From TrEMBL:
<dbReference type="InterPro" id="IPR051344">
    <property type="entry name" value="Vgb"/>
</dbReference>
<protein>
    <submittedName>
        <fullName>NHL repeat-containing protein</fullName>
    </submittedName>
</protein>
<keyword id="KW-0732">Signal</keyword>
<dbReference type="InterPro" id="IPR015943">
    <property type="entry name" value="WD40/YVTN_repeat-like_dom_sf"/>
</dbReference>
<feature type="signal peptide">
    <location>
        <begin position="1"/>
        <end position="21"/>
    </location>
</feature>
<dbReference type="InterPro" id="IPR011042">
    <property type="entry name" value="6-blade_b-propeller_TolB-like"/>
</dbReference>
Length: 276
């Protein structure tokens, strides 16, 4: 899949810190034996962005199928939205609004919980991962301009971080820093004072999947490899799960006990326990 990714980049397909040291580092014993991922669902077509709503429904953006699927708490899968162009990043706002990035059309859509769609913002440049910052602003990993942008309620765009290496995912940490995954190489940790640490040397190619627990532990998928890794405050990382086929999506479950990762290579969603 590494070769597939690089050809995708050439064709404009998916191209698609930091808190204090204690939330980042954690007990090192948890990393001695990486978890074996538990298979939950398969049959997805290049799944990327994932998010849970307040009712426990899981929404999955399927790049290859041009749709968003919804899995209810009982495991029943339905199509939430379709006829989309390159859906990549997906996040859900506090009021239940679902936001989906169209990588191919340089737009972000917003959906009501019932599925009504509107264009939320245009004029982007291959938007990949989406998330919300601590103040409630929508953040967009704008791959082609090497920026993280924020979106105002009126749809205006404002640069938040620049000078990145083809960013595809971002989270804001509890101390108002950021962690960014760059498909062009590495993970950027941006501290609140503006200092940067370029991390992720152990990654093949970091993907859009960046997830953070409530206590500030940050995890990133290795799309060019087979692992999910925890990012440490010194710029290193530790494997928490391995043996995956190009993991690309990542989300923390509502109970905070597990990570779900979606794999590009076999269209499957797996569960991984969050290390203590």
């Amino acid at each position: 899949m590494m070769n597939a990714l690089r050809s995708s980049l050439a064709a404009r397909a998916l191209a698609l810190a930091v808190v204090s040291a204690s939330p980042f580092v954690g007990p090192t014993a948890a990393f001695e034996n990486p978890a074996t991922p538990e298979k939950l669902w398969d049959g997805f077509s290049s799944p990327v962005g994932m998010a849970f709503d307040a009712k426990g429904n899981l929404f999955v953006a399927e790049w290859g199928a041009g749709r968003v699927s919804r899995i209810d708490p009982a495991g029943k899968r339905t199509t939430f939205a379709d006829v989309l162009s390159g859906p990549s990043g997906l996040t859900i706002g506090p009021n239940g609004t679902i936001y989906v990035a169209s990588y191919s059309r340089d737009e972000v859509y917003r959906f009501t919980p019932s599925g009504e769609r509107r264009v939320h913002v245009t004029g982007l440049a291959t938007p990949a991962g989406l998330s919300f910052d601590r103040s409630g602003r929508l953040l967009v990993a704008n791959r082609r301009t090497n920026q993280i942008l924020s979106v105002s309620r009126s749809g205006g765009l404002e640069p938040v971080i620049g000078g990145l290496r083809t960013p595809v995912g971002v989270v804001q940490t509890p101390d108002n820093g950021y962690v960014v995954s760059n498909i062009g190489g590495g993970v950027t940790i941006l501290r609140p004072d503006g200092a940067r640490i370029e991390a992720g040397e152990e990654f093949g190619t970091p993907g859009p999947g960046v997830a953070m627990t409530k206590d500030g532990r940050v995890f990133v998928v290795d799309y060019g490899g087979t692992t999910v890794r925890k990012i440490l405050s010194d710029g290193q990382s530790r494997i928490v799960a391995e043996g995956l086929r190009s993991p690309v999506g990542l989300v923390v479950t509502p109970d905070g006990a597990s990570l779900l990762t979606a794999t590009w290579g076999d269209g499957t969603i797996y569960r991984i326990p969050v290390p203590d």
